[in-house]
Write a structure and sequence with these properties.
118 residues; alpha+beta; two-stranded antiparallel ribbon; 4 helices; 2 strands; globular
Length: 118
């Protein structure tokens, strides 16, 4: 290991969310803020934080997730959308938690940021 830090990723089960959760929000499956790695708590932390901010503030088009092995993309996106709609956690907690979960569910993402929401 030679002093090199190796990040061990923990595979999470994707929580089931209802249509009401997707419409009105939930905090089901949102990690505790203290359990989220610091790189997801910085406004410019990584591509997943940037994705959250672009999606939340501008909207996205041509969104294409590349899932990790054994991840149900539709179930993961429903969970992410339900968390993003929640008014319960602070915005910082929601940003960090959703960005972290996206990093756990997906290998990569491709998208275009909308210029404005229509």
């Amino acid at each position: 290991m030679g002093g090199r830090y190796e990040r061990k990723e923990i595979r999470m089960n994707i929580p089931e969310v209802t249509n009401a959760d997707v419409a009105f929000g939930t905090t089901i499956g949102l990690p505790d803020y203290d359990a989220i790695p610091d790189e997801f708590k910085n406004r410019y932390g990584n591509k997943w934080v940037q994705l959250f901010n672009d999606w939340f503030f501008c909207g996205l088009k041509k969104l294409e997730f590349i899932p990790k092995e054994n991840v149900d993309v539709n179930k993961a996106i429903r969970h992410i959308k339900a968390l993003m709609c929640s008014f319960s956690p602070s915005h910082e907690h929601k940003t960090a938690g959703v960005a972290y979960l996206m990093s756990q569910y997906f290998e990569d993402v491709k998208y275009e940021k909308c210029d404005k929401i229509n």
